[in-house]
# Entry
Amino acid sequence: MRSSLACVFAITATLGVAGCGGKGGGANEPSGASLQVTSIEPTSAAPTGGVPLVVHGRGFMAESRAIQVYIGDQPANVLSVDSDTDLQVEVPPGEAGKTVDVKLVFEPGGEIKLARAFTFTPAP
# Structure
């Protein structure tokens, strides 16, 4: 089942914060929520952006949620929520050779940060 999702660019003080390090992310969960992100793929792309990135986890469709994804400081376009365990975003442009955090903000639900989880490949 595939559904479109409106994106929200709002971070409030009521959001819980969870963190995790390592390439490709790892299991982490906002406090008091059943949300979890287990991995992302791919973990790198050209700095021009525009490629799809799949976020794997759970709880994405457990309730109606607005989802915003950031790769580095740039918002990524949420393309679809394909299931309760997968969502797709479009990677925004970034700086060649730079490794950045991937942050997902779920409203309601909280925030999940994957520290240094995505790399913009160096220019040839």
About this structure: The radius of gyration is 13 Å. Residues 1-32 have pLDDT under 50 and may be disordered. The domain at 17-120 is CATH 2.60.40.10 (Immunoglobulin-like). The first strand starts at residue 17 and ends at 21.
